[in-house]
Structure formats: C-alpha cells, structure tokens
C-alpha cells in the first residue's frame, strides 16, 4: 500500500487504504474514497485516469464557451468559439439588409455588420485558445501581462500546464524546449516549493510558455 501522498498534475492523491484514495485540488477535496489498483504511484495513477478525466472536465466547465456566428441571408455560414458571449462592436438588435454579412451572438440578441476581412480579424482576436479555460483556474496576478503586478507561479500552479498529468499533457523536457532552455534548468521551476533547487520562472519565459501551449493568446 502507498502511504505517501503524490501529485498527478495539479491533483494530489491521498491514499486511504490499499484500494481507496481521496483526490485534492488545491485545498479542496474533489473526490473521496475512490477505488484504486496497483502498488506503485504509476499504477495507482493509471487506475484513477477516468476520475482525473471527469475532474478535469468539471474544472473546464467553470469557463463557459460561446458560439459567435457569421450570418448571410439569415443562414449561418461560419462560426467560432469565444470565451465571451459577444465581441466588441456587437450591439443589441436584429439583422437587417444594411450588409451582406453579419456577426451574431448565439442567442441572436446582439449583432454587427461585417465584411469577410473584418470577420477574419475578429475571429483571430476573439476565438478561444485551446487551453484558455486553464488560464481562468490560475490567479490573476500569475496571468497578468503587467510585469509590475505579476507574481511568479508556484510549483502547483505550474503543474496545471506542464508535467505528467498536466492539462496540456506537455512534459517538462518539451516545455523547456518550447522556451529555449535545457530540461535541467527548467526543472528548477517545477521543483517543490521550499526545495533548495527551486527557482522562480521569469516573466518572459512564463508568458512565452503559456502562448506556446495555447493557454494565452
């Protein structure tokens, strides 16, 4: 039986017995007395994969996504997914014959006339990035673009985006390559808080990593 807690991404597994475990996320217990199998951390983690998948989806659901439609003659001809229900420039009102193409919210309450080129620009500016929902799980001071307000992420916060079980599925070695450093140097950022080898990731390296992984635009 495993006796020590261990991390899988941002989730902490707390073995209760040879066949049961609790799973914490930060300071909250999200799952209790979950069935487990195996004698090693890897085996136990594998047996909990379905539970991790469910918890991941529950966290993802905290960030609702919205469809923005491109309309022509009352028919949808294209669309994109956004984290916002409307984009800048859309106003209350119905589509009329002033323009050939219209951008419209999924509830049809907001719209704006656009050209095809304008639609392409708005899509590029407002389409949700692949892991944009992960950004909403992290504190604002960790995600800010203002270096004066920024705080370096803790090892737990980094586990959201890098390492085994992370929401990006990206290994530390791959993350290191993405930001142009060695895996050895990058491990200093993912070491446990308080460890003698622990170092804070820089503002530029952190934001470059988030962009490369699709957490931020």
Description:
It is a single chain. The chain is an alpha+beta fold and about 220 residues long. The chain has nine helices and nine strands. The protein folds into three domains: about 5-60, no CATH class; about 65-125, no CATH class; about 130-215, no CATH class. It is about 30% helix and about 25% strand. Strands 6-5-8-9-7 form a five-stranded antiparallel beta sheet, covered by helices on one side. It has helices at about 40-45, 50-60, 115-125, 130-135, 140-145, 155-160, 170-180, 185-190, 205-215, and strands at about 5-10, 10-15, 20-25, 30-35, 65-70, 75-80, 90, 100-105, 110-115.
Helix content: 25-40%
Tally of discrete structural domains: 3
**Major beta sheet, strand line-up:** 6-5-8-9-7
Radius of gyration, whole Å: 22 Å
Q: Which runs of at least 5 residues are low in confidence (pLDDT < 50)? A: none
- The SSE order reads EEEEHHEEEEEHHHHHHH
Sheet of most strands:
5 strands, antiparallel
Question: Can you count the beta strands?
Answer: 9
Distance between the termini: 44 Å
Q: How would you sum up the global shape?
A: elongated
Structural class: alpha+beta
Average pLDDT taken over every residue: 93
């Amino acid at each position: 039986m495993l006796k020590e807690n261990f991390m899988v991404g941002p989730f902490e597994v707390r073995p209760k017995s040879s066949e049961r475990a609790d799973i914490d996320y930060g300071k909250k217990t999200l799952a209790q007395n979950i069935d487990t199998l195996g004698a090693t951390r890897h085996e136990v983690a594998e047996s909990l994969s379905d539970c991790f998948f469910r918890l991941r989806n529950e966290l993802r659901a905290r960030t609702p996504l919205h469809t923005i439609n491109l309309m022509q003659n009352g028919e949808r001809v294209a669309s994109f997914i956004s984290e916002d229900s409307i984009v800048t420039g859309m106003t209350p009102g119905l589509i009329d014959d002033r323009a050939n193409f219209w951008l419209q919210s999924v509830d049809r309450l907001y719209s704006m006339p656009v050209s095809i080129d304008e639609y392409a620009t708005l899509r590029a500016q407002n389409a949700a990035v692949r892991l944009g929902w992960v950004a909403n799980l992290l504190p604002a001071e960790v995600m800010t673009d203002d270096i004066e307000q920024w705080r370096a992420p803790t090892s737990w916060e980094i586990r959201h985006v890098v390492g085994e079980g992370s929401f990006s599925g990206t290994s530390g070695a791959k993350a290191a390559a993405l930001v142009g450093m060695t895996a050895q140097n990058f491990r200093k950022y993912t070491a446990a808080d308080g460890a003698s080898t622990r170092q804070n990731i820089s503002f530029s390296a952190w934001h470059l990593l988030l962009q490369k992984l699709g957490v931020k635009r």
